[in-house]
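Cast an eye over this sequence plus C-alpha coordinates and walk me through the fold:

***
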Amino acid sequence: MVESNEEGMKHVKKWLLIIIALSLLLIAPAISKRHQAEWDNRTYEMMMPYDEIEAWLQEEKEEDVWKQLKEAGLTTVSIEAETLDSLEQSGHVLLLKMDEWKHTLVLLNETVAHLPSRGLVVYPLDETFPLVSSLKATFGDDVQAMQANGKTYYIIEGNAKKIERVPLGYDEMKIARLIEQGLMVVLRIPDARDMNEASVRVLQQIEALKNEHTFKLLPTGEEVAGYPTDVAKWGERWKEAGYVLLSTEFYEAKGLTTLAKAMDVHVVRLHSLNLEQRKPNEAVDVAIRAIKERNIRALFIRPYASADTEQNMEKTITVMKQIVQHMPSHYTLGKSEPFAPIERSSIATIGFVIGATAFVFLAVRSLVSPMMASLAAGGTLILSVAGTVLAIDLALKAVALLVAIITPIYAAKPSSVQEGWRGTFMAYGRAIAISFVGISWIVTMLYGNEYMAYVGEGFRGVKLVYVVPLVAMVVLVLPWMIREPLLPFMKRLWKHPITIGHVVISFVVLALLAYYVLRSGNTGTASALELAARQKLEEWLYVRPRTKEFLLGFPAYLLALFVINKQKQLGAILLVVGTIGWLSIINTFTHLHIPLFISFVRTMYSLGLGLFIGIALIHVYKWVWKKVIR
Protein backbone atom coordinates (compact mmCIF):
# COMPACT_ATOMS: atom_id res chain seq x y z
CA MET A 1 0.00 0.00 0.00
CA VAL A 2 2.87 2.33 0.90
CA GLU A 3 4.63 1.51 -2.36
CA SER A 4 1.39 2.21 -4.24
CA ASN A 5 1.11 5.64 -2.60
CA GLU A 6 4.72 6.41 -3.41
CA GLU A 7 4.25 5.39 -7.03
CA GLY A 8 1.10 7.50 -7.22
CA MET A 9 2.95 10.50 -5.80
CA LYS A 10 5.77 10.06 -8.30
CA HIS A 11 3.19 10.07 -11.09
CA VAL A 12 1.53 13.21 -9.72
CA LYS A 13 4.91 14.91 -9.30
CA LYS A 14 5.82 14.07 -12.90
CA TRP A 15 2.65 15.77 -14.21
CA LEU A 16 3.07 18.75 -11.90
CA LEU A 17 6.61 19.26 -13.22
CA ILE A 18 5.27 19.12 -16.78
CA ILE A 19 2.63 21.75 -15.85
CA ILE A 20 5.34 23.97 -14.34
CA ALA A 21 7.51 23.62 -17.44
CA LEU A 22 4.59 24.52 -19.74
CA SER A 23 3.59 27.46 -17.56
CA LEU A 24 7.15 28.81 -17.67
CA LEU A 25 6.86 28.81 -21.46
CA LEU A 26 3.57 30.73 -21.19
CA ILE A 27 4.98 33.46 -18.96
CA ALA A 28 8.32 33.81 -20.79
CA PRO A 29 7.02 36.44 -23.28
CA ALA A 30 5.77 38.62 -20.41
CA ILE A 31 9.15 38.50 -18.67
CA SER A 32 10.89 39.25 -21.96
CA LYS A 33 8.56 42.20 -22.59
CA ARG A 34 9.35 43.74 -19.22
CA HIS A 35 13.08 43.36 -19.81
CA GLN A 36 12.74 44.95 -23.24
CA ALA A 37 10.80 47.92 -21.83
CA GLU A 38 13.54 48.51 -19.25
CA TRP A 39 16.40 48.03 -21.70
CA ASP A 40 14.92 50.36 -24.34
CA ASN A 41 14.50 53.17 -21.81
CA ARG A 42 18.07 54.39 -21.24
CA THR A 43 17.87 58.16 -21.57
CA TYR A 44 18.27 60.21 -18.39
CA GLU A 45 18.12 63.93 -17.69
CA MET A 46 19.73 66.27 -15.17
CA MET A 47 17.70 69.10 -13.72
CA MET A 48 18.16 71.89 -11.20
CA PRO A 49 15.67 74.17 -9.43
CA TYR A 50 15.48 77.67 -10.87
CA ASP A 51 15.37 79.38 -7.48
CA GLU A 52 18.86 78.04 -6.67
CA ILE A 53 20.28 78.98 -10.08
CA GLU A 54 18.74 82.45 -9.71
CA ALA A 55 21.28 83.38 -7.01
CA TRP A 56 24.05 82.70 -9.52
CA LEU A 57 22.29 84.70 -12.25
CA GLN A 58 22.16 87.74 -9.98
CA GLU A 59 25.90 87.73 -9.36
CA GLU A 60 27.39 86.27 -12.55
CA LYS A 61 26.90 86.97 -16.23
CA GLU A 62 23.70 85.19 -17.24
CA GLU A 63 24.97 83.81 -20.55
CA ASP A 64 28.06 82.37 -18.86
CA VAL A 65 25.99 80.66 -16.16
CA TRP A 66 23.71 78.94 -18.65
CA LYS A 67 26.60 78.01 -20.95
CA GLN A 68 28.57 76.35 -18.16
CA LEU A 69 25.55 74.49 -16.79
CA LYS A 70 24.52 73.15 -20.20
CA GLU A 71 28.08 72.06 -20.96
CA ALA A 72 28.08 70.22 -17.61
CA GLY A 73 24.97 68.28 -18.61
CA LEU A 74 22.02 70.37 -17.43
CA THR A 75 19.00 69.56 -19.58
CA THR A 76 16.07 70.74 -17.47
CA VAL A 77 15.10 73.42 -14.96
CA SER A 78 12.24 73.12 -12.50
CA ILE A 79 10.18 76.14 -11.55
CA GLU A 80 7.54 76.62 -8.90
CA ALA A 81 4.41 78.71 -9.03
CA GLU A 82 5.28 82.20 -7.80
CA THR A 83 4.21 83.22 -4.33
CA LEU A 84 4.58 86.54 -2.54
CA ASP A 85 7.43 84.96 -0.61
CA SER A 86 9.30 83.90 -3.78
CA LEU A 87 8.66 87.28 -5.43
CA GLU A 88 10.16 89.05 -2.42
CA GLN A 89 13.23 86.78 -2.43
CA SER A 90 13.82 87.51 -6.11
CA GLY A 91 13.43 91.26 -5.54
CA HIS A 92 10.12 91.83 -7.35
CA VAL A 93 8.04 92.98 -4.37
CA LEU A 94 8.42 94.40 -0.89
CA LEU A 95 6.35 92.80 1.87
CA LEU A 96 5.36 94.39 5.16
CA LYS A 97 3.53 92.82 8.09
CA MET A 98 0.62 94.88 9.41
CA ASP A 99 2.58 96.15 12.44
CA GLU A 100 5.47 97.20 10.18
CA TRP A 101 3.02 98.97 7.88
CA LYS A 102 1.48 100.95 10.73
CA HIS A 103 4.94 102.06 11.87
CA THR A 104 5.75 103.06 8.29
CA LEU A 105 2.59 105.19 8.09
CA VAL A 106 3.59 107.03 11.25
CA LEU A 107 7.01 107.80 9.76
CA LEU A 108 5.35 109.00 6.54
CA ASN A 109 2.92 111.11 8.57
CA GLU A 110 0.04 109.32 6.89
CA THR A 111 -3.29 108.50 8.54
CA VAL A 112 -5.37 105.61 7.22
CA ALA A 113 -8.68 104.59 8.77
CA HIS A 114 -10.07 101.07 9.11
CA LEU A 115 -6.85 99.10 8.74
CA PRO A 116 -7.33 95.34 9.35
CA SER A 117 -5.85 93.96 12.55
CA ARG A 118 -3.77 91.43 10.67
CA GLY A 119 -2.63 90.95 7.11
CA LEU A 120 0.14 91.65 4.63
CA VAL A 121 1.06 94.78 2.67
CA VAL A 122 2.52 94.34 -0.80
CA TYR A 123 4.48 96.96 -2.71
CA PRO A 124 5.44 96.09 -6.33
CA LEU A 125 9.04 96.90 -7.29
CA ASP A 126 8.77 95.99 -10.99
CA GLU A 127 6.26 94.72 -13.56
CA THR A 128 7.98 91.51 -14.69
CA PHE A 129 5.21 89.45 -13.10
CA PRO A 130 1.47 90.32 -13.46
CA LEU A 131 1.19 90.93 -9.72
CA VAL A 132 -1.95 93.04 -9.39
CA SER A 133 -4.17 90.82 -11.54
CA SER A 134 -2.80 87.72 -9.82
CA LEU A 135 -3.51 89.14 -6.36
CA LYS A 136 -7.08 90.06 -7.26
CA ALA A 137 -7.70 86.69 -8.91
CA THR A 138 -6.25 84.80 -5.94
CA PHE A 139 -7.48 86.79 -2.91
CA GLY A 140 -10.57 88.55 -4.33
CA ASP A 141 -12.21 91.08 -2.01
CA ASP A 142 -9.50 90.56 0.62
CA VAL A 143 -7.21 92.77 -1.51
CA GLN A 144 -7.43 96.55 -1.09
CA ALA A 145 -5.38 99.16 -2.93
CA MET A 146 -4.11 102.02 -0.76
CA GLN A 147 -2.33 105.27 -1.57
CA ALA A 148 0.41 106.50 0.72
CA ASN A 149 3.11 109.07 -0.03
CA GLY A 150 2.06 109.07 -3.67
CA LYS A 151 2.54 105.32 -4.10
CA THR A 152 0.11 102.40 -4.38
CA TYR A 153 0.25 99.57 -1.86
CA TYR A 154 -1.93 96.46 -1.71
CA ILE A 155 -3.28 95.23 1.62
CA ILE A 156 -4.36 91.58 1.94
CA GLU A 157 -6.31 90.75 5.07
CA GLY A 158 -5.63 87.45 6.83
CA ASN A 159 -2.80 85.32 8.19
CA ALA A 160 0.41 86.84 6.79
CA LYS A 161 2.41 83.59 6.84
CA LYS A 162 -0.29 81.71 4.91
CA ILE A 163 -0.77 84.57 2.45
CA GLU A 164 2.95 84.53 1.60
CA ARG A 165 2.79 80.86 0.54
CA VAL A 166 -0.39 80.89 -1.59
CA PRO A 167 0.54 80.13 -5.25
CA LEU A 168 -0.22 83.04 -7.59
CA GLY A 169 0.72 81.41 -10.89
CA TYR A 170 3.72 80.52 -13.03
CA ASP A 171 5.92 83.22 -14.50
CA GLU A 172 5.42 82.65 -18.22
CA MET A 173 8.19 85.08 -19.17
CA LYS A 174 10.63 83.08 -17.06
CA ILE A 175 9.52 79.85 -18.77
CA ALA A 176 9.97 81.45 -22.19
CA ARG A 177 13.53 82.56 -21.31
CA LEU A 178 14.44 79.05 -20.21
CA ILE A 179 13.09 77.56 -23.44
CA GLU A 180 15.11 80.13 -25.40
CA GLN A 181 18.19 78.75 -23.64
CA GLY A 182 17.38 75.33 -25.11
CA LEU A 183 16.31 73.87 -21.77
CA MET A 184 13.30 71.78 -20.84
CA VAL A 185 11.04 73.04 -18.06
CA VAL A 186 9.45 71.04 -15.24
CA LEU A 187 6.49 72.61 -13.45
CA ARG A 188 6.37 71.92 -9.73
CA ILE A 189 2.80 71.23 -8.58
CA PRO A 190 1.88 73.32 -5.51
CA ASP A 191 1.31 71.79 -2.09
CA ALA A 192 -2.44 71.46 -1.46
CA ARG A 193 -1.95 72.89 2.05
CA ASP A 194 -0.81 76.24 0.60
CA MET A 195 -3.70 76.62 -1.83
CA ASN A 196 -6.99 78.45 -1.41
CA GLU A 197 -10.22 78.10 -3.37
CA ALA A 198 -9.06 80.47 -6.10
CA SER A 199 -5.82 78.52 -6.63
CA VAL A 200 -7.64 76.32 -9.14
CA ARG A 201 -6.57 78.89 -11.73
CA VAL A 202 -2.94 77.82 -11.15
CA LEU A 203 -3.86 74.21 -11.91
CA GLN A 204 -5.66 75.36 -15.04
CA GLN A 205 -2.59 77.33 -16.05
CA ILE A 206 -0.60 74.08 -15.93
CA GLU A 207 -2.85 72.70 -18.67
CA ALA A 208 -2.32 75.78 -20.83
CA LEU A 209 1.48 75.74 -20.46
CA LYS A 210 1.97 72.25 -21.94
CA ASN A 211 4.26 72.23 -24.97
CA GLU A 212 7.14 70.19 -26.37
CA HIS A 213 9.55 71.79 -23.87
CA THR A 214 7.23 71.83 -20.84
CA PHE A 215 5.68 68.40 -20.38
CA LYS A 216 6.68 67.11 -16.93
CA LEU A 217 5.16 67.77 -13.52
CA LEU A 218 6.87 67.39 -10.14
CA PRO A 219 4.78 67.48 -6.93
CA THR A 220 6.07 69.60 -4.07
CA GLY A 221 5.23 69.55 -0.36
CA GLU A 222 3.33 66.91 1.61
CA GLU A 223 -0.02 66.93 -0.23
CA VAL A 224 -0.53 66.85 -3.99
CA ALA A 225 -2.67 69.67 -5.37
CA GLY A 226 -6.32 68.64 -5.24
CA TYR A 227 -5.84 66.38 -2.23
CA PRO A 228 -7.96 64.76 -0.88
CA THR A 229 -10.96 64.85 -3.25
CA ASP A 230 -9.84 66.25 -6.62
CA VAL A 231 -6.48 64.57 -7.26
CA ALA A 232 -7.83 62.05 -9.79
CA LYS A 233 -9.76 64.78 -11.64
CA TRP A 234 -6.63 66.88 -12.17
CA GLY A 235 -4.58 63.82 -13.01
CA GLU A 236 -6.95 62.94 -15.83
CA ARG A 237 -6.90 66.51 -17.16
CA TRP A 238 -3.10 66.67 -17.08
CA LYS A 239 -2.91 63.27 -18.76
CA GLU A 240 -5.17 64.52 -21.55
CA ALA A 241 -2.91 67.55 -21.90
CA GLY A 242 0.03 65.19 -22.42
CA TYR A 243 1.97 65.58 -19.18
CA VAL A 244 4.35 63.09 -17.57
CA LEU A 245 4.63 62.83 -13.78
CA LEU A 246 7.96 62.80 -11.93
CA SER A 247 8.03 60.63 -8.81
CA THR A 248 10.77 61.37 -6.27
CA GLU A 249 12.54 58.33 -4.85
CA PHE A 250 12.19 57.73 -1.08
CA TYR A 251 9.44 60.35 -0.85
CA GLU A 252 5.72 60.22 -1.52
CA ALA A 253 3.29 63.08 -1.02
CA LYS A 254 -0.26 62.27 0.00
CA GLY A 255 -2.29 61.60 -3.14
CA LEU A 256 0.72 60.85 -5.36
CA THR A 257 -0.32 57.25 -6.07
CA THR A 258 -3.83 58.41 -6.99
CA LEU A 259 -2.38 61.08 -9.28
CA ALA A 260 0.01 58.62 -10.96
CA LYS A 261 -2.74 56.09 -11.65
CA ALA A 262 -5.05 58.82 -12.98
CA MET A 263 -2.24 59.68 -15.40
CA ASP A 264 -2.03 56.01 -16.51
CA VAL A 265 1.33 55.66 -14.72
CA HIS A 266 3.08 57.96 -17.21
CA VAL A 267 5.77 58.30 -14.57
CA VAL A 268 9.51 58.95 -14.59
CA ARG A 269 11.42 58.12 -11.42
CA LEU A 270 13.53 60.95 -10.00
CA HIS A 271 16.37 60.97 -7.49
CA SER A 272 17.03 64.16 -5.53
CA LEU A 273 20.77 64.64 -4.97
CA ASN A 274 21.76 67.30 -2.43
CA LEU A 275 25.45 67.94 -3.10
CA GLU A 276 25.96 69.67 0.26
CA GLN A 277 25.18 66.40 2.04
CA ARG A 278 27.69 64.22 0.17
CA LYS A 279 31.33 64.12 -0.80
CA PRO A 280 31.84 64.77 -4.55
CA ASN A 281 32.93 61.21 -5.42
CA GLU A 282 30.11 59.79 -3.31
CA ALA A 283 27.57 62.01 -5.08
CA VAL A 284 28.80 60.74 -8.46
CA ASP A 285 28.55 57.10 -7.33
CA VAL A 286 25.05 57.61 -5.90
CA ALA A 287 23.83 59.25 -9.12
CA ILE A 288 25.21 56.53 -11.38
CA ARG A 289 23.89 53.74 -9.18
CA ALA A 290 20.44 55.32 -9.16
CA ILE A 291 20.31 55.42 -12.97
CA LYS A 292 21.59 51.92 -13.69
CA GLU A 293 20.18 49.99 -10.72
CA ARG A 294 16.83 51.54 -9.76
CA ASN A 295 15.16 52.70 -12.98
CA ILE A 296 15.83 56.36 -12.11
CA ARG A 297 15.71 58.50 -15.23
CA ALA A 298 15.88 62.02 -13.78
CA LEU A 299 18.53 63.45 -11.44
CA PHE A 300 17.45 66.49 -9.47
CA ILE A 301 20.70 68.28 -8.58
CA ARG A 302 20.60 70.55 -5.55
CA PRO A 303 23.80 72.59 -5.93
CA TYR A 304 26.39 73.63 -3.40
CA ALA A 305 25.29 76.72 -1.47
CA SER A 306 27.61 77.09 1.54
CA ALA A 307 30.49 78.98 -0.14
CA ASP A 308 30.55 82.05 -2.39
CA THR A 309 28.79 81.97 -5.75
CA GLU A 310 31.87 81.28 -7.85
CA GLN A 311 32.95 78.34 -5.69
CA ASN A 312 29.42 76.93 -5.53
CA MET A 313 29.16 77.03 -9.31
CA GLU A 314 32.58 75.50 -9.86
CA LYS A 315 32.03 72.61 -7.44
CA THR A 316 28.52 71.88 -8.72
CA ILE A 317 29.57 71.92 -12.36
CA THR A 318 32.55 69.63 -11.62
CA VAL A 319 30.29 67.00 -10.03
CA MET A 320 27.78 67.21 -12.89
CA LYS A 321 30.53 66.70 -15.46
CA GLN A 322 31.85 63.68 -13.56
CA ILE A 323 28.37 62.13 -13.44
CA VAL A 324 28.07 62.39 -17.22
CA GLN A 325 31.66 61.23 -17.76
CA HIS A 326 31.40 58.12 -15.56
CA MET A 327 27.86 57.12 -16.53
CA PRO A 328 27.90 53.75 -18.40
CA SER A 329 28.09 54.33 -22.13
CA HIS A 330 24.74 52.67 -22.89
CA TYR A 331 22.92 55.48 -21.04
CA THR A 332 22.29 58.73 -22.91
CA LEU A 333 21.81 62.22 -21.51
CA GLY A 334 18.71 63.87 -22.93
CA LYS A 335 14.93 63.80 -22.66
CA SER A 336 13.74 61.10 -20.27
CA GLU A 337 10.50 59.27 -20.98
CA PRO A 338 8.19 56.89 -19.06
CA PHE A 339 8.56 53.19 -19.70
CA ALA A 340 6.66 51.80 -22.65
CA PRO A 341 3.32 50.37 -21.42
CA ILE A 342 3.44 46.67 -20.56
CA GLU A 343 0.47 44.48 -19.76
CA ARG A 344 0.33 40.83 -18.81
CA SER A 345 -1.45 38.76 -21.44
CA SER A 346 -4.24 36.33 -20.59
CA ILE A 347 -1.92 33.47 -21.60
CA ALA A 348 0.71 34.64 -19.11
CA THR A 349 -1.99 34.99 -16.45
CA ILE A 350 -3.12 31.41 -16.98
CA GLY A 351 0.52 30.37 -16.92
CA PHE A 352 1.38 31.82 -13.55
CA VAL A 353 -1.93 30.74 -11.95
CA ILE A 354 -1.53 27.06 -12.79
CA GLY A 355 2.24 27.12 -12.47
CA ALA A 356 2.32 28.81 -9.06
CA THR A 357 -0.39 26.45 -7.76
CA ALA A 358 1.57 23.38 -8.87
CA PHE A 359 4.81 24.86 -7.53
CA VAL A 360 3.33 25.60 -4.08
CA PHE A 361 1.88 22.08 -3.88
CA LEU A 362 5.24 20.46 -4.68
CA ALA A 363 7.11 22.73 -2.28
CA VAL A 364 4.81 22.25 0.70
CA ARG A 365 4.48 18.50 -0.05
CA SER A 366 8.25 18.08 0.11
CA LEU A 367 8.56 20.15 3.30
CA VAL A 368 5.50 19.23 5.38
CA SER A 369 2.67 16.88 4.35
CA PRO A 370 0.25 16.10 1.49
CA MET A 371 -2.68 17.57 3.41
CA MET A 372 -0.91 20.89 4.01
CA ALA A 373 0.23 20.88 0.40
CA SER A 374 -3.37 20.56 -0.81
CA LEU A 375 -4.52 23.38 1.48
CA ALA A 376 -1.67 25.66 0.40
CA ALA A 377 -2.22 24.94 -3.30
CA GLY A 378 -5.95 25.52 -2.94
CA GLY A 379 -5.36 28.84 -1.20
CA THR A 380 -2.89 29.84 -3.92
CA LEU A 381 -5.41 29.02 -6.65
CA ILE A 382 -8.24 30.94 -4.94
CA LEU A 383 -6.10 34.01 -4.29
CA SER A 384 -4.67 33.93 -7.82
CA VAL A 385 -8.14 33.81 -9.36
CA ALA A 386 -9.33 36.59 -7.03
CA GLY A 387 -6.35 38.71 -8.01
CA THR A 388 -6.69 38.18 -11.76
CA VAL A 389 -10.41 37.76 -12.39
CA LEU A 390 -11.72 40.07 -9.66
CA ALA A 391 -8.71 42.44 -9.91
CA ILE A 392 -8.04 42.31 -6.17
CA ASP A 393 -4.51 43.64 -6.02
CA LEU A 394 -3.97 42.55 -2.43
CA ALA A 395 -4.74 38.93 -3.33
CA LEU A 396 -1.96 38.79 -5.91
CA LYS A 397 0.45 40.41 -3.47
CA ALA A 398 -0.48 37.74 -0.93
CA VAL A 399 0.31 34.98 -3.46
CA ALA A 400 3.60 36.67 -4.35
CA LEU A 401 4.50 36.85 -0.66
CA LEU A 402 3.60 33.18 -0.18
CA VAL A 403 5.78 32.13 -3.13
CA ALA A 404 8.61 34.41 -1.95
CA ILE A 405 8.57 32.78 1.49
CA ILE A 406 8.20 29.18 0.30
CA THR A 407 10.78 29.31 -2.51
CA PRO A 408 13.98 29.78 -0.44
CA ILE A 409 12.86 27.06 2.00
CA TYR A 410 12.10 24.64 -0.84
CA ALA A 411 15.40 25.50 -2.52
CA ALA A 412 17.54 25.25 0.61
CA LYS A 413 16.06 22.03 2.06
CA PRO A 414 17.53 19.21 -0.08
CA SER A 415 15.39 16.12 -0.56
CA SER A 416 18.49 13.94 -0.70
CA VAL A 417 22.17 14.51 -1.45
CA GLN A 418 24.59 12.02 -2.95
CA GLU A 419 27.98 11.94 -1.30
CA GLY A 420 30.92 13.66 -2.99
CA TRP A 421 31.36 16.51 -5.41
CA ARG A 422 28.83 15.32 -7.96
CA GLY A 423 26.01 15.13 -5.43
CA THR A 424 26.95 18.54 -4.02
CA PHE A 425 26.88 20.24 -7.41
CA MET A 426 23.62 18.54 -8.41
CA ALA A 427 21.91 19.68 -5.20
CA TYR A 428 23.29 23.21 -5.72
CA GLY A 429 21.91 23.23 -9.27
CA ARG A 430 18.54 21.99 -8.00
CA ALA A 431 18.35 24.89 -5.53
CA ILE A 432 19.23 27.38 -8.28
CA ALA A 433 16.52 25.98 -10.57
CA ILE A 434 13.87 26.11 -7.82
CA SER A 435 14.81 29.69 -6.96
CA PHE A 436 14.50 30.94 -10.53
CA VAL A 437 11.18 29.14 -11.01
CA GLY A 438 9.79 30.89 -7.91
CA ILE A 439 11.23 34.20 -9.08
CA SER A 440 9.48 33.77 -12.44
CA TRP A 441 6.07 33.57 -10.73
CA ILE A 442 6.74 36.64 -8.57
CA VAL A 443 7.82 38.94 -11.42
CA THR A 444 4.85 37.79 -13.52
CA MET A 445 2.27 38.23 -10.76
CA LEU A 446 3.35 41.74 -9.78
CA TYR A 447 3.54 43.00 -13.33
CA GLY A 448 3.09 46.36 -14.99
CA ASN A 449 4.37 49.91 -15.17
CA GLU A 450 3.28 50.76 -11.64
CA TYR A 451 5.78 48.22 -10.30
CA MET A 452 8.64 49.29 -12.59
CA ALA A 453 8.01 52.92 -11.64
CA TYR A 454 7.44 52.03 -7.96
CA VAL A 455 4.02 53.65 -7.78
CA GLY A 456 2.36 52.77 -4.49
CA GLU A 457 3.68 50.12 -2.13
CA GLY A 458 5.09 47.54 -4.55
CA PHE A 459 5.92 44.16 -3.01
CA ARG A 460 4.83 43.80 0.60
CA GLY A 461 6.61 41.69 3.19
CA VAL A 462 10.33 42.16 2.47
CA LYS A 463 11.21 41.75 6.15
CA LEU A 464 9.04 38.63 6.40
CA VAL A 465 10.99 37.02 3.56
CA TYR A 466 14.20 37.72 5.47
CA VAL A 467 12.94 36.10 8.69
CA VAL A 468 10.29 33.43 8.04
CA PRO A 469 12.41 31.10 5.81
CA LEU A 470 15.20 31.13 8.40
CA VAL A 471 12.82 30.27 11.24
CA ALA A 472 11.14 27.59 9.11
CA MET A 473 14.50 26.04 8.23
CA VAL A 474 15.50 25.93 11.89
CA VAL A 475 12.26 24.06 12.67
CA LEU A 476 12.79 21.66 9.76
CA VAL A 477 16.40 20.71 10.60
CA LEU A 478 16.12 20.93 14.40
CA PRO A 479 15.45 17.17 14.73
CA TRP A 480 18.80 16.56 12.97
CA MET A 481 20.53 18.82 15.48
CA ILE A 482 18.95 17.39 18.64
CA ARG A 483 18.86 13.80 17.35
CA GLU A 484 15.35 13.16 18.60
CA PRO A 485 11.75 13.94 17.53
CA LEU A 486 10.84 17.61 17.84
CA LEU A 487 7.71 17.31 20.02
CA PRO A 488 9.29 15.39 22.95
CA PHE A 489 12.27 17.78 22.84
CA MET A 490 9.98 20.83 23.04
CA LYS A 491 8.06 19.33 25.98
CA ARG A 492 11.31 18.62 27.83
CA LEU A 493 12.66 22.08 27.02
CA TRP A 494 9.46 23.71 28.30
CA LYS A 495 9.85 22.06 31.69
CA HIS A 496 13.59 22.73 31.93
CA PRO A 497 14.64 25.39 34.51
CA ILE A 498 15.77 28.71 33.03
CA THR A 499 19.32 29.71 33.95
CA ILE A 500 21.23 32.97 33.54
CA GLY A 501 23.14 31.32 30.73
CA HIS A 502 19.91 30.63 28.84
CA VAL A 503 18.88 34.29 29.21
CA VAL A 504 22.26 35.54 27.98
CA ILE A 505 22.23 33.22 24.98
CA SER A 506 18.65 34.28 24.14
CA PHE A 507 19.63 37.95 24.20
CA VAL A 508 22.64 37.28 21.98
CA VAL A 509 20.51 35.36 19.46
CA LEU A 510 17.83 38.08 19.43
CA ALA A 511 20.48 40.81 19.02
CA LEU A 512 22.03 38.97 16.06
CA LEU A 513 18.58 38.48 14.50
CA ALA A 514 17.73 42.17 15.01
CA TYR A 515 21.05 43.22 13.45
CA TYR A 516 20.43 40.89 10.51
CA VAL A 517 16.96 42.32 9.90
CA LEU A 518 18.03 45.95 10.35
CA ARG A 519 20.88 45.50 7.85
CA SER A 520 18.48 44.17 5.26
CA GLY A 521 16.77 46.35 2.65
CA ASN A 522 17.37 49.98 1.69
CA THR A 523 17.72 51.22 5.25
CA GLY A 524 20.46 48.78 6.23
CA THR A 525 23.82 50.06 7.46
CA ALA A 526 27.35 48.87 6.75
CA SER A 527 30.84 49.62 7.99
CA ALA A 528 33.24 51.94 6.15
CA LEU A 529 35.42 48.97 5.17
CA GLU A 530 32.45 47.06 3.77
CA LEU A 531 31.29 50.14 1.84
CA ALA A 532 34.76 50.51 0.30
CA ALA A 533 34.79 46.83 -0.67
CA ARG A 534 31.31 47.16 -2.19
CA GLN A 535 32.45 50.13 -4.26
CA LYS A 536 35.43 48.21 -5.63
CA LEU A 537 33.25 45.25 -6.55
CA GLU A 538 30.90 47.58 -8.38
CA GLU A 539 33.77 49.14 -10.31
CA TRP A 540 35.10 45.75 -11.37
CA LEU A 541 31.81 43.94 -12.04
CA TYR A 542 29.41 46.75 -13.14
CA VAL A 543 26.96 45.67 -10.42
CA ARG A 544 28.08 44.24 -7.10
CA PRO A 545 26.84 40.88 -5.81
CA ARG A 546 25.35 40.84 -2.32
CA THR A 547 27.90 40.11 0.40
CA LYS A 548 25.59 37.87 2.43
CA GLU A 549 25.06 35.71 -0.65
CA PHE A 550 28.53 35.04 -2.06
CA LEU A 551 30.55 35.31 1.16
CA LEU A 552 28.12 33.68 3.59
CA GLY A 553 24.99 31.99 2.28
CA PHE A 554 26.15 30.04 -0.78
CA PRO A 555 29.56 28.87 0.57
CA ALA A 556 27.86 27.67 3.77
CA TYR A 557 25.21 25.90 1.70
CA LEU A 558 27.76 24.08 -0.47
CA LEU A 559 29.66 22.93 2.61
CA ALA A 560 26.37 21.80 4.15
CA LEU A 561 25.63 19.67 1.09
CA PHE A 562 29.10 18.15 1.21
CA VAL A 563 29.00 17.16 4.91
CA ILE A 564 25.29 16.49 5.45
CA ASN A 565 25.54 12.71 5.05
CA LYS A 566 28.54 12.32 7.37
CA GLN A 567 27.92 15.05 9.94
CA LYS A 568 24.20 15.68 10.11
CA GLN A 569 24.36 18.20 12.97
CA LEU A 570 26.99 20.38 11.28
CA GLY A 571 25.16 20.06 7.97
CA ALA A 572 21.89 21.14 9.59
CA ILE A 573 23.47 24.27 11.08
CA LEU A 574 25.09 25.16 7.77
CA LEU A 575 21.78 24.67 5.93
CA VAL A 576 20.22 27.35 8.13
CA VAL A 577 23.08 29.72 7.31
CA GLY A 578 22.88 28.75 3.64
CA THR A 579 19.19 29.69 3.54
CA ILE A 580 20.30 33.34 3.81
CA GLY A 581 21.67 33.14 0.26
CA TRP A 582 18.45 31.79 -1.26
CA LEU A 583 16.10 34.17 0.52
CA SER A 584 18.40 37.06 -0.42
CA ILE A 585 18.18 36.41 -4.16
CA ILE A 586 14.40 36.13 -3.87
CA ASN A 587 14.40 39.52 -2.20
CA THR A 588 16.57 40.91 -4.98
CA PHE A 589 13.83 40.17 -7.51
CA THR A 590 11.02 41.40 -5.26
CA HIS A 591 12.48 44.90 -5.61
CA LEU A 592 10.44 45.32 -8.77
CA HIS A 593 11.77 48.79 -9.62
CA ILE A 594 15.22 47.26 -10.15
CA PRO A 595 15.76 46.20 -13.79
CA LEU A 596 15.55 42.46 -14.37
CA PHE A 597 18.90 42.57 -16.13
CA ILE A 598 20.59 44.05 -13.06
CA SER A 599 18.96 41.57 -10.67
CA PHE A 600 19.93 38.65 -12.93
CA VAL A 601 23.56 39.74 -13.33
CA ARG A 602 23.90 40.42 -9.59
CA THR A 603 22.48 36.98 -8.77
CA MET A 604 24.70 35.15 -11.27
CA TYR A 605 27.75 36.86 -9.80
CA SER A 606 26.67 35.76 -6.31
CA LEU A 607 26.04 32.18 -7.42
CA GLY A 608 29.35 31.98 -9.29
CA LEU A 609 31.51 33.59 -6.61
CA GLY A 610 29.66 31.66 -3.91
CA LEU A 611 30.44 28.42 -5.80
CA PHE A 612 34.18 29.13 -5.96
CA ILE A 613 34.36 30.23 -2.33
CA GLY A 614 32.28 27.21 -1.33
CA ILE A 615 34.65 24.85 -3.16
CA ALA A 616 37.58 26.47 -1.36
CA LEU A 617 35.73 26.11 1.95
CA ILE A 618 35.13 22.42 1.28
CA HIS A 619 38.86 21.90 0.61
CA VAL A 620 39.67 23.65 3.89
CA TYR A 621 37.13 21.46 5.67
CA LYS A 622 38.66 18.30 4.14
CA TRP A 623 42.15 19.37 5.20
CA VAL A 624 41.01 20.19 8.75
CA TRP A 625 39.10 16.89 8.95
CA LYS A 626 42.11 14.93 7.76
CA LYS A 627 44.88 16.76 9.64
CA VAL A 628 43.18 18.00 12.80
CA ILE A 629 39.92 16.26 13.67
CA ARG A 630 41.03 12.72 12.79
